[in-house]
Specification:
Elements (H helix, E strand, L loop, with lengths): L1 H16 L3 E2 L8 E3 L4 E6 L5 E6 L2 E6 L4 E6 L5 E10 L3 E17 L1 H4 L8 H6 L2 E9 L17 E4 H4 L4 H14 L3 E7 L11 H5 L5 H13 L2 H20 L21 H7 L9 E5 L8 H19 L6 E4 L9 H13 L3 E4 L16 H14 L11 E8 L2 E7 L14 E4 L6 E2 L1 E5 L2 E5 L8 E4 L20 E2 L8
Parallel strand pairs: 2-8, 8-11, 8-12, 9-11, 12-13, 13-14
Antiparallel strand pairs: 1-3, 3-6, 4-5, 4-7, 7-8, 9-10, 15-16, 16-20, 17-18, 17-21, 19-20, 21-22
């Protein structure tokens, strides 16, 4: 009996070693990217032969060092559910696979904000029937080194799964599916309250002189971390907290034990939530982040374009579309941060920025109205990713000239024309002394005239230049103008 048990165990161990495991991105209900080569990969026994069969293709390889990867040739969109099989010592069958457009939805809390908590989102979620939209939600994971797989699977876009999915991501996918008429796969990878450096690889951070210190400081904090000291500090803070409460004083912040910083610094979310997605084939990225970098806009001017270049390099798919949301009005968001986002858009190929100055809240960093955000991102995708000739941005400042004491402003992206508001808000004007005053502004045909009775010779105009601007300049397509200042500092050498 003992020999039989031993033999059975040895046989079971042999079967376990031979187990073929596709990457978690390859599960039933997945969407594969159309019109491009599609990598399919996973793990297996050291030298096992693997065959992937799908949509009339059959591709084989031999696993090396426990890993395997094959590439399917480009395929057109197909809304008919198909079966994908992965065969070796045993066969794995994945059901209901579609071919269409795949987008990554990434960033921090405003991208994370679930549909059920957005305006009218619960009602929308309860009535959803979207068989051609599929959802993949990467679990929050920080890691000191790049992870190989995310612990998730593709899910149908139904009431059960979409309620907790990104509201912005869902509305983006919904509008894109209606426009393109093909299946849409949405991969959500987001964490609230996270700065951009956490989403960039250590290689890219370390290669930049201005960003390398972020890594060095964190590594020093890892070396300096002493769990005994952290516990002692926590106990002291707790004692002060209890004393304040007992004395009826203003309740202090609840103490928190300082955790080990290892694996929680720069690049940690890239390692845990972006690296596992590579090299999955997709069309582009929608991005909503920057709030956590509001304390250092100058650094964000380096971080944000570095992040875009980093992701494009990692996938080696060229300059894939990268669309992002300019931060909405909020009391703690400086206008310089929005300006940096605008500059990144203008200087970085195949990017697109949407403006939501009409859907912010001075006192709420999480404005609950998410549908227009997703809709505008989808509109941007139609132009940037799919080449549709449409107006997808609001008016963009082009030039200024002074006539009879008035600043005459011209814009691009006016679409069908500027919305003819007779009294515009959000404009300030200055003369050579640099003192900005609230300005009178109005639309005159395709221009905006800005003036102030005490300024005879204006030199500069600003629009929406505030933490929480109140502005009403739109084009007739209903898209808000991009905030700007004509006196922006010139870039250094």
């Amino acid at each position: 009996m003992a020999l039989l048990t031993t033999a059975w165990l040895l046989g079971s161990a042999s079967i376990a070693r031979a187990l073929i495991v596709p990457n978690s991105l390859f599960s039933s209900h997945a969407v594969l990217q159309r019109d491009t080569e599609v990598p399919v990969w996973g793990t297996a026994d050291g030298d096992e032969k693997i065959t992937v069969t799908f949509a009339g293709q059959s591709v084989s390889t031999t696993a090396q060092d426990g890993k395997w990867l094959v590439r399917l040739k480009p395929m057109p969109a197909n809304a008919t559910p198909q079966t994908l099989t992965i065969s070796g010592s045993h066969t794995i069958t994945l059901e209901s696979i579609l071919i269409g457009e795949v987008w990554i939805c990434a960033g921090q809390s405003n991208m994370e904000w679930p549909l059920a908590k957005s305006t009218h989102g619960r009602e929308v979620a309860n009535n959803i029937r979207e068989p051609l939209i599929r959802l993949f939600k990467v679990p929050t994971t920080q890691s000191a080194t790049p992870s190989q797989a995310a612990s998730a699977t593709w899910k149908p876009c139904d009431a059960k799964n979409v309620a907790s999915f990104s509201a912005v991501g869902y509305y983006f996918g919904r509008d894109l599916q209606k426009t393109l008429g093909v299946p849409i796969g949405l991969i959500a990878s987001h964490v609230g309250g996270t700065a951009a450096d956490k989403w960039i690889s250590e290689k890219s951070l370390g290669a930049h002189p201005q960003l390398k210190p972020l890594i060095e400081r964190h590594k020093q904090s890892e070396l300096n971390y002493d769990p005994a000291k952290a516990q002692a500090a926590y106990e002291i803070a707790n004692a002060k907290f209890d004393s304040a409460v007992a004395a009826g004083k203003k309740r202090p912040k609840t103490p928190a034990l300082a955790g080990n910083p290892k694996g929680r610094g720069p690049s940690s979310l890239y390692n845990g939530m972006i690296a596992p997605l590579q090299p999955y084939a997709f069309r582009g990225v929608i991005w909503y982040q920057g709030e956590a970098n509001r304390g250092n806009p100058a650094q964000y001017a380096t971080l944000f374009p570095t992040l875009i270049a980093d992701w494009r390099s990692a996938w080696n798919r060229g300059d894939f579309p990268f669309l992002f949301v300019q931060l909405p009005p909020f009391n703690a968001i400086p206008p310089e941060l929005r300006e940096i986002q605008t500059d990144t858009w203008k200087k970085t190929p195949r990017t697109g920025m949407i403006v939501i100055t009409d859907h912010g809240s001075p006192d709420n960093i999480h404005p609950p109205v998410k549908e227009p955000v997703g809709q505008r991102l989808a509109r941007a995708a139609r132009a940037v990713a799919y080449g549709e000739q449409i107006t997808w941005s609001g008016p963009i400042f082009k030039s200024m000239e002074v006539q009879n004491g008035k600043a005459i402003l011209r814009f691009t992206s006016t679409g069908s024309g500027l919305k003819p508001e007779t009294t515009l808000t959000g404009f300030t004007i200055a003369s050579a002394d640099g003192r900005f005053l609230p300005a009178a502004a109005s639309v005159h045909g395709d221009t905006v005239e800005v003036s102030h009775p005490s300024i005879a010779q204006p030199t500069s105009v600003r629009f929406g230049w505030a933490n929480a601007p109140e502005v009403n300049l739109f084009n007739l397509e209903g898209l808000p103008a991009v905030p700007f200042r004509t006196d922006a500092p010139k870039p250094g050498p």
